[in-house]
Specification:
The protein is α+β, with helices and mostly antiparallel strands and about 450 residues long. About 35% of the residues lie in helices and about 15% in strands. The strands form 2 sheets. Strands 1, 2, 3, 4, 5, 6, 7 and 8 form an 8-stranded mixed sheet that branches. The protein starts with a helix and ends with a helix.
């Protein structure tokens, strides 16, 4: 069972990944003058101790208060007994957001009016005027959305993953640059939180996302998006119906996640520390007047959240950032030998299965279409895209001297979506010709009678 492997494998791989993230400079994408908008998200990781683990009695600290105790280093954290105890489980935090009005208030979410399925995302949102940087944006948005203060001593920032470009449909126009920041919870207990209405927290074991034999193996699925919602004008019903018939749907890879809301997102246990809850409530109330991070809703400790039995889907941006994190957990020999293929969906293209371990996140944004001929024409026009992938692979295998300087991800996406646009034009023209020929033939047969 993967649960038995976690103390000896998943925890060790997580330690390696976090040390690697902390020591590796991320690829920073500068915002062009024409589009300065940026956003940031917080990827929060914790190690859940075994339920039966007995903690030693706390020793009085010289500083007099646990809040003033010195923060553990990353190495010291992974040397603790409860972190390495049999049954300890590394977990990652996802949010499930309800948006009945189709608006997310600046949050980063994949669910929208074009899909009808439940999706998860990371806490975060757009950078606002006055933010001191992407790290501050991620911490501020996390506080405003779920009431979790990442500035507390119980959490430590690990580092930043590579920036990601967010574009319009088919990559024609840049919308913003997204910066993911990784945080680690240092304490065995998660402090009470105050999520926004319609938001539930889901702590998912990393073993559910890792391939076998390390983990349980991800359960791959797809998310279908109506292509007409992205290719046709929003208010043109006729054009949307025509594009829907000619092009069909777009299918994005996704990982199924069983919905098991965190108790802290729905209800506080009866034996919770009342002083801790009162302190949290006072901290939230004081923030409205004295803290620059504003909160506009009250504590909902006793509210029950919906979707308790719903299966969630991890896809899009959130899947890409998750794969970026998991790629850092790959052993060095797997990184050099193309071991990234284990992180790809089963139907990923052959080119993607050859690229370096930094590339699995590309599979999360490359859609496949419902009609096979559309995928065929994408392959026909994908010569430049495949050349970029081969150049990326050669750069990494040669030592990666250009890997951090060249935006391989952006180049791959640009050339891929250029091939998609050409393929769609050909498919629509060919279909229109066949429809016209069919009408002419039908009219000729009708008049011949």
């Amino acid at each position: 069972m993967a649960a038995n492997k976690e103390p000896s494998s998943v925890v060790a791989l997580l330690s390696r990944a976090l040390h690697r993230i902390r020591s590796t400079p991320p690829r920073i994408i500068a915002s062009p003058a024409t589009q300065p908008r940026r956003a940031a998200v917080a990827i929060i990781i914790r190690v859940s101790p075994p339920p039966n683990h007995v903690f030693p009695a706390p020793q009085p600290s010289e500083s007099g208060s646990p809040a003033n105790a010195p923060t553990l280093s990353l190495t010291e954290f992974f040397q603790q007994d409860w972190v390495n105890a049999p049954g300890a489980r590394p977990e990652i935090l996802f949010l499930r957001r309800d948006r009945p009005d189709g608006q997310d208030g600046g949050r980063m979410s994949e669910s929208g009016p074009n899909t009808r399925e439940a999706h998860v995302a990371f806490p975060g949102g757009k950078t606002e005027e006055g933010d001191e940087g992407g790290l501050y944006t991620a911490m501020r948005q996390t506080w405003e959305e779920i009431g979790l203060d990442l500035a507390e001593s119980s959490y430590t920032p690990i580092g930043q993953l590579d920036d990601r470009e967010i574009t319009t449909s088919l990559g024609k126009r840049l919308l913003m640059i997204l910066s993911p920041f990784v945080f680690l919870q240092l304490s065995p207990q998660t402090t009470p939180v105050d999520p926004s209405p319609g938001t539930t927290l889901h702590w998912v074991p990393l073993s559910a996302l890792l391939p076998r034999p390390i983990g349980d193996g991800p359960r791959w699925s797809t998310v279908s998006v109506d292509a007409s919602s992205r290719l046709a004008p929003r208010h043109s019903t006729v054009l949307r119906l025509l594009v829907r018939l000619l092009v069909g749907s777009m299918k994005f890879p996704a990982i199924l996640i069983p919905a098991s809301p965190s108790p802290s997102s729905s209800a506080i246990p009866e034996n919770a520390d009342e002083k801790l809850i009162d302190a949290k409530r006072a901290h939230v109330e004081a923030a409205g007047a004295a803290h620059p991070l504003k909160r506009d809703h009250s504590l909902n400790f006793g509210a029950r959240r919906p979707h308790d039995e719903e299966t969630l889907k991890l896809w899009g941006l959130s899947l890409g950032m998750t794969l970026d994190l998991l790629a850092h957990m790959a052993p060095p020999e797997a990184r050099r030998g193309g071991g990234s293929a284990a992180l790809l969906p089963p139907d990923a293209e052959a080119e993607l299965r050859r690229v370096p371990v930094v590339a699995p996140s590309l599979a999360s944004v490359f859609p496949r279409f419902g009609y096979p001929d559309v995928n065929f024409w994408i392959w026909v026009f994908g010569k430049r895209y495949r050349a970029v992938i081969r150049g990326w692979e050669a750069s990494v295998r040669a030592g990666g001297t250009n890997d951090r300087r060249i935006n391989w991800t952006g180049s791959a996406l640009t050339t891929f979506y250029a091939a998609v646009r050409k393929a769609l034009v050909v498919v629509i023209v060919v279909r229109a010709i066949f429809v016209l020929l069919g009408l002419l033939l039908g009219g000729w047969l009708l008049f011949r009678r």
